[in-house]
Design brief:
The protein is α+β, with helices and mostly antiparallel strands. Helices cover about 20% and strands about 15% of the residues.
Length: about 130
């Protein structure tokens, strides 16, 4: 499923009760389908699909709230690390065609061997250290 129309876009029609942080260009919410406790999304207010469509001001706004969201998660949940990611385009797995940054808290022991992180989108190439 791919959502492209801003009239039906779940990020353009957010319930204000879901917003935990905001500034002029960006909002922050918890992911509706979290992969870890505290999984958070940083979303521009303007309906754009790609980070590469964001203005410099919007990009700075996204990064500002990414940092604030991380700080909030550290205080509330005390994760040991984070994965930060953007699925930019359908071939990269983007299903909601409104730019959003995933801030995924990681906890020691949540995976037996977390090495490789986001490289696991290609499992046969993830454990590169085995081929060195």
């Amino acid at each position: 499923m791919e959502i492209t129309d801003h009239h039906t876009c779940p990020f353009c029609t957010l319930d204000s009760n879901r917003i935990i942080l905001s500034n002029d260009h960006t909002v922050v919410i918890r992911d509706g389908f979290p992969v870890s406790k505290g999984h958070t999304l940083i979303i521009p207010k303007r309906h754009i699909a790609s980070l590469f469509e964001a203005t410099a001001e919007e990009q700075a706004s996204l990064l500002e709230l990414l940092g604030l969201a991380r700080q909030q998660l550290q205080e509330e949940l005390k994760p040991n690390a984070f994965n930060i990611g953007i699925n930019d385009g359908s071939a990269a797995g983007q299903t909601v065609m409104h730019l959003h940054i995933h801030l995924i808290p990681r906890y020691t022991g949540d995976q037996p061997d977390p090495r490789g992180g986001v490289r696991w989108i290609f499992p046969d190439k993830a454990a590169y250290w085995n081929n060195a």
